[in-house]
Amino acid sequence: MSVPHAKLPAWAEYGLIPLVNLAVAFLISGLVVLIVGESPLEAAYHMINGAFGRGEYIGFTLYYTTTFIFTGLAVAVAFHCGLFNIGGEGQAYIGGIGVALACLSFDRVLPWYLLFPIAVIGAAFFGALWAMIPGWLQAKRGSHIVITTIMFNFIAASLMNYLLNRVFKPLGSMSLETRTFETGGQLPKLDWLMSIFGLSVGNAPFNISFLLALLAAFGVWVLIWRTKLGYEMRTMGHSPAAARYAGIKEAKIIVITMMISGALAGMMALNPIMGEQFRMQLDFVQGAGFVGIAVALIGRSHPAGIIPAALLFGMLYQGGAEISFEMPSISRDMIVIIQGLVILFAGALEHMFRPAITRIIFGLSPKGRQAAATKGA
Amino acid sequence: MDFFQVFIELAQSTVRVSTPLILAALAGLFTERAGVFDIGLEGKMLGAAFAAGTVAFLTQSVAMGLGAAILVSVLLSLVHGYASITQRGSQIVSGVAINFVVAGSTVILGEAWFRQGGRTPALMESGRFGTIKLPFADALREVPILGPLYSNLLSGHSPLTYLAFLMVPASWWILYRTRFGLRLRAVGENPGAVDTAGISVIWLRYRAVICCGILCGIAGAYLSLAANAGFTKGMTAGKGYIALAALIFAKWRPKNILFACLLFGFLDAFAIRYQGYAFPLIGKVPVQLMQALPYILTVILLAGFIGKAIPPKAGGVPYVKER
Lengths: 377, 323
What we know:
Transmembrane segments (chain B): 62-85, 92-114, 159-176, 206-225, 231-250, 257-276, 288-306
Number of domains of chain B: 1
Order of helices and strands of chain B: HHHHHHHHHHHEEH
Oligomer: heterodimer
Strand content of chain B: under 5%
Strand content of chain A: under 5%
Largest interface: A-B, 50 and 50 residues
Largest sheet of chain A: none
Membrane topology (chain B): Multi-pass membrane protein
Protein name (chain B): ABC transporter permease
Distance between the termini of chain B: 68 Å
Subcellular location (chain B): Cell membrane
Keywords (chain B): Cell membrane, Membrane, Transmembrane, Transmembrane helix
């Protein structure tokens, strides 16, 4: 596709434009707060205070951040290959099977540090499996990945409902959840990490899977920019035709990309299941798979962008809970609005402010004006 | 006779469940045939249902409620149109965004205005669609076989239900027998050719998106003004996605849409009625399997195992006039 705009400097491309898009999304959210009859400034204060005001709040913020790093990375990896994996929600849900199976089998015999790797493999395996089918259908049968992954989200919801009802639920129990895991299935909290900064984690379920998320982010960076596979994925994403001419096996790359994406989404299940609840509950994903879309868009599909974007959404989730406590007319559904607006302005309308920003930047510096004249022509 | 009675009841609830699906799937047909993919059907329906519930309660008028539903849905369609036609953004991303914005704001606004946990207040008779009794429905009820078919199945539905079923041939006629329809389909297959003929691709796609908004608006109004007495939080419950599945299952054709929606509606009605019922030979069918069946069928169809669903050729691709 032709590039209709002059090339912007990197700081504007990766810093300014996402910030402007975010700012617009937040301004409109502020308008909604005004319509509801509350003060947006007060809401912002409660949000930031609720997210960072105390060690425990920060712990909760980072707990949510962990989840969103996983789902954001999942969406980003697929984006690099030109695939829109909208099924992170379902893949994370199915990934829970792997975690639950590992924990239910070994939590009485193994200590957590031996069980954790098994659970990671289990989560990644089931997540990858659930993403592999849409990937294979796209690669071999040409069915559109967006539609199949949406369908698979619904199928996953029904399947998990069935499994929790008939398979995982202990006898005589009424609620749809597995039994509570013994100590082997409980991840330690990162209180030592927090205490370095003189903070107490309190009741927050901030746990060791945060470190795994950071490791995964680094792994994705290596994969995408430092390996042959990543190069092939990016080539596919930029130009499928070029990839085909270069002899890259299209079908193989699509399936592998989707499996990596699904594995990352599946690993999200570790955080709530082993880190917080110590059991698998109905609907434990709670929309995190969809938040991943917003995170990947804001983070420009780069791990260095995804981590701050995940932190932003972690802040929204934890701070949003605080807002709804302080200002009852603003429930946590406010976050869903903000999430939608972020997706709209950072995703679908990402080029809306670009012409204006280009004009301002190149208008200010005489050197830039020349560059614009030559490049833009 | 008992079996017949069951059949009539099942058919009745199938019609009820299918109505919003048909309207929403036809809505999707108009935009997707024009080359604009729309996974925001769910959000538009939800927004419309909320607007209908709110305005019908405030004005006590069905007509105003329906009008508000259509207005909100068309506005949301225009946002989608602006993002995906004018700004050439990703159509999928824009649809996802609209779904989220609507899902959140209907709850926040509903709670702020009515304080009933995201509901709109229950509507009186004057704020709802009544049912239409076809002539002689009562007199003919006693006639064997045909009587119940006429009085219980054909008669006694909401006007929007009849409208939905009439919209199927109407959509076919618009898309296949009018100049607007020909151009609309052409713009979804080969926008360059349409442009060369001197017709504005942009304006044509905007009109398609508006058609989608109108139909989604009616679908939403059906949910809160006819099927229920008011709006409840998240009341579309995935119907927009089922409609999308039906649209694909129907291979983007009006007549097939009717059958696909009736099939998916029937599965739903059947699942509700036979929950936990042990069938001969098969035994108990888990209700979750019945719920997942529309999605599974769509995946199988998309994979080309039962026929092949070929989407409009230029679908999902923004049109760039000059390169």
